[in-house]
Amino acid sequence: MNEAMGEKVAIWLLNDLRLHDHPALQAALERRPARVEFVYVWGPPVAGWGKYSYPSQSLGFNRRLSPARERFILESLLDLAERVPLTLLEGEPQEVLPVWAASQGVSIVYAHREWAPEEISYQSATACALEAKGIPLILHEGNSLYETHQLPFPLDSLPMLFTRFRQLVERTARVKPPLPSPSLPPASQPIEETAKILRQRLSALPPLHEKSFPFKGGERAGQARVEAYFERALFTYKETRNGFWGSDFSSHLSPWLAVGCLSPRWICERLREAEKRHGANDSTYWLFFELLWREYFRWLSARWGCRLFAVGGLRNLKLPWRHDMQLFQAWIEGNTGYPIIDAAMRELKATGWTSNRARQIVASFLTKNLFIDWRWGASYFEVQLIDYDVYSNWGNWLYQAGVGTDGRGFRWFDPVRQAKLYDPEGSFIRLWVPELRSLSAPRVYMPEPEIRRSLGYPPPLVDWHVSLTAAKDAYWTAVKGKPTGNQLLKLFQDEEG
Ligand SMILES: Cc1cc2nc3c(=O)[nH]c(=O)nc-3n(C[C@H](O)[C@H](O)[C@H](O)COP(=O)(O)OP(=O)(O)OC[C@H]3O[C@@H](n4cnc5c(N)ncnc54)[C@H](O)[C@@H]3O)c2cc1C
Q1: Which of 195, 406, 428, 474 has the most CB atoms less than 10 A away?
Q2: In a 10 Å sphere around its CB, with 0-12 CB exposed, 13-18 middle and 19+ buried, how is residue 42 labelled?
Q3: Closest approach atom of ligand 1 to CA 251
Q4: For residue range 433-466, what is the model confidence (pLDDT) as tens digits?
Q5: What CATH number is attached to the domain comprising 40?
Q6: CB of 461 closer than 6 A to ligand 1?
Q7: How many Å apart are CA 218 and CA 18, to the nearest integer?
Q8: Same domain, residue pair 39 and 55
Q9: Dihedral, CA atoms, 381, 386, 391, 397, nearest 10 degrees?
Q10: Cβ neighbours of residue 480 under 8 Å, at least 6 residues apart?
Q11: Relative to the CA of 255, which ligand 1 atom is closest?
């Protein structure tokens, strides 16, 4: 079929809420259809748990996504709905999408391939249900810097250490230029209806927290953020990226990348253009380096599937994790008695975002000091983060918990030292822990017992040194002696075999 015969095709959107660099859309347009319909399913794996979701560990989370993330996704959809014909369905994709596609006379559905187990299950089940109605689902790769065929190794030989992965791809693979935003065939009917529904739903959501970075969903807002950040702060990124607070210490692009308002290839192109204009430096390289981390976790998921969610992680380590709800709750609420941890956790709870260094410190504290099952932490991040991304979240948690791909094995962060380094005035702590507002640095990093008592701030939940030593012992007992880099590689190789 072609244009003359009035073919209608559909783009099933998930984590690709954009028009630029959209290989699935590009492929659909190559058929020269008369109509292109966009469809988004409000249901699992994004909103709510369903048939193919992993059973959550009954942690009592009643929502799968935070209001901040819901707002961001709805804004991103609205940004599209104002420009293209978009239909919003509710339910499990394999149930609602085929019925809708058949009722609309859609002949083919296009989407981007996902790499995580739950997402794959939904795509497979939907493909079968569509097929039963004579409608094929065609999946394309998108949302990554590289496509599978560009990787200089087969997926099952993905290097277990990031550095090796980075060296190989940097040496041999080239990031392709992004596809331009295409011009689309005219919509068959007015496109205002979905936009109206989205605006109504948005008006029922709480506004962003007053101290939140002003995240606004949508391709256009994401592209504007790239331009603004590159203009103002890209060239000092490497020096500032470990900060805790402020608009420009890091790019804040993660929410747009997570839902695909921005394609990493497009960011990369803008990065190269900025380098051509002003010269490359360590900071411009470092932003690319961080995008490679994002990339690595995607391929890790493609390679290891369900193992990403296993308590023993990729290394099948049997660690005596605690399942203590009281300790876990104190961590969630930011009542651990460690000011920098509490500031970060309160920021996360209020805004759905906290910096990378803060995420590392709180993950280290949960897994190396409270010794709580790392999957509890990952699950809380999943329901809380505005930039939740299945690959980056679970991959980073595995890494921080020491059951993933960290060549160092047992990695930890000293919260007081980190606070001194990256919150030198203590202002981030004072902003989020008002009990400590009257304290200045260095006292604010670890107030004395009598000061805590007088200010109503809790004592430390655990002794940092004692708990770390116990965790270290448990860890090295589980790996039976400290492996060197090569032994670790061997360990992974043994696992693979
Ligand atoms: C325990 C833990 C959980 C995390 N969960 C998520 C998550 O669900 N979603 C998410 O996008 N990131 C996650 N990260 C990675 C990182 O913290 C965020 O990507 C980063 O803080 C986002 O801020 P930014 O956009 O300003 O990053 P920048 O420092 O400006 O980096 C630019 C981009 O590079 C990517 N990036 C940077 N660091 C990492 C990293 N360590 N891993 C993967 N990609 C990275 C992101 O896409 C980011 O937007 C997690 C990190 C940890 C330690």
Answers
A1: 428
A2: middle
A3: 30
A4: 999 999 999 999 999 999 999 999 999 999 999 9
A5: 3.40.50.620
A6: no
A7: 8
A8: yes
A9: -30
A10: none
A11: 11
